[in-house]
């Protein structure tokens, strides 16, 4: 593995999330749609940038750039973005939802390079967005206002409000449940209720915390900052650089990974499409690649020009 390209964005802030636009072959998405696995989105400052990574890093050409700061506004902190996720529309357009400090979800059209939908409901910073694994119209958002919300993009409305004081979420591959992780190590499993009544009702359903399944605090009281499913199990990370691979049914830890770093680090890790590998960033600029099944470190990726904290990292489709 080698460093192929360095891109410096002009917003001067950390990159908070990276996301490839992968196609799920087993979803309802059209089998004839164009392969978009080379399209990469980055979120940093008040900007969302979309790149073409067709040549596996040798060329990273910018396709679109969105800045949500109103032209008359100078206080960028009020519009800083935290997260983004992709959606595919049968019309052939790619939509990307992004959100952050302004508490609204901005749904942008890549084909038209404009904002198509603005979802309002949260009252504080939105920290995480997740697209539904099996359809292209449901979106799950997480906010510092103490709620997670399930939205319908086609109807442009909130369907369910979950009483979840959480920092992030992760859908189960079935799309029927999701996991939340909190600032004090709390993790819960939530079941999405029947949406029949909420689709025809203007008032969203409410799901209270007592209805969630409390999971063991495998990270103690440490801030859980990333959750992923892999091979039917959970991979969870806390800011003290502990990564646990464990069974959600028995809640037994299968193995743990310790990332070498002297300081706490908020970093989104990624799991390869085949569920074999995990990559995770460190406070000092390195990216570690582990074999999930064997637990061994496969590579430490570093470069003298990359020494700042890695806030996120992602695999390409073929892990090259």
TrEMBL record:
Pfam families documented for this protein: WD40
UniProt cross-references to SMART domains, sorted A to Z: WD40 (SM00320)
Ranges: WD repeats: 119-161
Alphabetically ordered keywords of this record: Repeat, Transcription, Transcription regulation, WD repeat
Gene3D superfamilies in the record: YVTN repeat-like/Quinoprotein amine dehydrogenase
Signal peptide start-end: none
InterPro entries reported for this sequence: PcG_WD-repeat, WD40/YVTN_repeat-like_dom_sf, WD40_repeat_CS, WD40_repeat_dom_sf, WD40_rpt
Annotated family: Belongs to the WD repeat ESC family.
PANTHER family associated with the record: POLYCOMB PROTEIN
Name of protein: WD40-repeat-containing domain protein
Lineage, broadest ranks: Eukaryota, Fungi, Fungi incertae sedis, Mucoromycota, Mucoromycotina
